[in-house]
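Page 37, continued from 36.
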C-alpha cells in the first residue's frame, strides 16, 4: 500500500498570473528574490493583486537562506494577521517562505495561512514539494525540513519570468531538475506515479536544457524546462531523493557551490556507486542489479541501446557527461575551484552529515560513511 498526495493547484502558462486577482482583503506576506525587486519584475507581478489586499514585502532573501533570514521574515509581519504567504523567486525565496510559515505556525503566530509560490527559476520544484532547505551558517550545515504542511496550496508557472535567468543559473537549476528526476526514479520509494513524472522530466531536460542554456530567449525551451522542474518536484515529493542530494546538502554548506552545479558534479559518481558499476569496468563486489536496471531504463528512454544493465549505466553516465559539457559545467569539485586543503579539512564531516541526511533513507543503496567518503573523494 502507498499513498499519493498531490494537493497543489497548479496554474500554468500565459495568463496564469491572473489567478492572483482572485484574492481580496487579504493580509499577504510577499517573500521575494531581491533580483526581482530590483528588476521591476516583482512590481509587475504584484499588479495582478487587488488593491484591497494589505502587503508586507520582504525581499532580503539570499541564496541558501540562513535561519536569521527566516526569523527576519517572520518579524516583518509583527502586528499583522497574515492570511497568505506568497513567494516569488528561485528555490531560496520559496524555501524561505515555507520555513517562515513552518516556524511561525509552530510558534502560533500564523494560523490559517495559504501558501502560494511563483517560481522564477526552473530547478527546485519547491512550488510542489513538502521540502524546504535552510542553512545554519554558523555550523555550515543545510537542513531539509520535510513536512506535508509546507506543501504549497497554489503554484503559478509562468515561464516568461524565467527569461531573465542568466545562462549559468539556467544550467545549474536545470541539472537540479535532472538530479531530482533521476533520484526519484531509482529511489526505494519510487512508484508508477513518480516514475511517470520522472520519465517525462528526464526527457524534457535532455532535449530542452541545452537550448535554454544556449538561448535564454528560446521561449519554447524555457516553457518545457519550467514544466520539467515542476514534474520532477512532484516525482520526488512522493518518492523522495537519495545521496546525490544528501552530499550536496552537506558539501553545499561548506563550499558554497550553487546547489544544481554541485548536484551535477556529483551525479556521475552517484550513479556508478548506486549501481556498483564503474566506467572503466573495474568493479569490486556485486552489481546492484535492480538499480542498474533502473538506470538502464533511463538510458533507453534517451534512445540509447543500453543492451545490458551495465551498459545502460555506462551510457547514462556518458550522456550526463555530454550534457555537462554542453552546459560548460565543471566535472569535479577541484575544477570548480575547491582547494585540496579545504577539501581534506571538510570531507569526512561532509560524509558524516550526508549519512544522516533525510534523503539518504530513500537511496537505493545503503551507504556507509567510508563509502560516502569515497564518492566525495571521487568527485574531487
Ligand atoms: P536561488 O533561488 O538561490 O537563485 C539563484 C540566483 O538566481 C539568485 O541569485 C537569484 O537572485 C537569481 N534569480 C532567481 N530568479 C531569477 C530570474 N528570473 N532572473 C534572474 N535571476 C534570477 O536558486 P535555486 O536553484 O532556484 O534554489 C536553490 C535553493 O533551493 C537551495 O537552497 C537548495 O538547497 C534549495 N532546494 C530546495 C528544494 C525543495 O524541494 N524545497 C529542492 C532543491 C533545492
Amino acid at each position: 500500500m502507498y499513498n499519493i498526495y498531490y494537493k497543489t493547484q497548479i496554474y500554468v502558462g500565459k495568463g496564469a498570473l491572473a489567478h492572483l486577482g482572485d484574492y481580496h482583503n487579504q493580509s499577504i506576506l510577499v517573500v521575494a528574490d531581491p533580483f526581482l525587486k530590483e528588476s521591476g519584475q516583482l512590481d509587475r507581478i504584484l499588479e495582478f493583486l487587488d488593491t484591497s489586499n494589505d502587503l508586507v514585502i520582504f525581499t532580503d532573501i539570499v541564496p541558501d537562506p540562513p535561519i536569521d533570514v527566516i526569523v527576519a521574515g517572520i518579524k516583518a509581519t509583527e502586528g499583522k494577521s497574515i492570511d497568505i504567504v506568497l513567494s516569488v523567486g528561485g528555490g531560496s525565496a520559496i524555501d524561505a517562505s515555507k520555513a517562515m510559515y513552518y516556524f511561525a505556525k509552530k510558534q502560533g503566530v500564523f494560523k490559517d495561512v495559504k501558501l502560494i509560490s511563483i517560481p522564477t527559476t526552473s530547478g527546485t520544484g519547491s512550488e510542489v514539494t513538502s521540502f524546504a532547505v535552510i542553512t545554519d551558517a554558523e555550523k555550515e550545515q543545510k537542513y531539509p525540513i520535510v513536512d506535508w504542511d509546507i506543501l504549497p496550496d497554489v503554484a503559478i508557472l509562468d515561464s516568461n519570468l524565467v527569461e531573465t535567468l542568466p545562462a549559468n543559473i539556467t544550467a545549474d537549476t536545470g541539472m537540479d531538475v535532472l538530479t531530482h528526476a533521476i533520484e526519484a526514479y531509482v529511489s526505494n520509494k519510487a512508484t508508477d506515479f513518480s516514475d511517470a513524472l520522472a520519465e517525462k522530466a528526464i526527457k524534457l531536460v535532455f532535449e530542452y536544457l541545452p537550448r535554454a542554456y544556449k538561448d535564454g530567449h528560446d521561449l519554447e525551451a524555457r516553457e518545457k524546462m519550467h514544466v520539467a522542474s515542476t514534474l520532477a518536484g512532484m516525482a520526488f515529493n512522493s518518492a523522495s531523493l537519495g545521496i546525490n542530494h544528501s552530499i550536496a546538502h552537506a558539501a553545499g554548506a561548506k563550499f558554497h557551490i550553487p546547489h544544481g552545479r554541485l548536484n551535477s558534479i556529483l551525479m556521475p559518481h552517484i550513479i556508478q556507486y548506486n549501481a556498483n558499476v564503474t566506467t572503466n569496468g573495474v568493479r569490486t563486489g556485486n552489481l546492484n542489479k535492480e538499480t542498474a536496471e533502473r538506470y538502464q531504463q533511463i538510458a533507453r528512454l534517451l534512445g540509447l541501446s543500453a543492451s545490458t544493465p551495465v551498459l545502460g549505466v555506462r551510457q547514462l553516465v556518458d550522456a550526463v557527461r555530454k550534457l555537462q559539457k554542453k552546459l560548460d559545467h565543471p566535472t569535479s569539485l577541484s575544477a570548480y575551484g575547491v582547494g585540496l586543503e579545504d577539501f581534506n579539512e571538510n570531507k569526512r564531516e561532509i560524509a558524516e552529515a550526508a549519512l544522516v541526511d533525510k534523503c539518504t533513507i530513500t537511496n537505493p543503496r545503503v551507504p556507509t560513511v567510508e563509502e560516502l567518503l569515497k564518492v566525495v573523494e571521487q568527485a574531487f
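The chain has 14 helices and eight strands. Flag for discussion at group meeting. The two ends are 41 Å apart (CA to CA).
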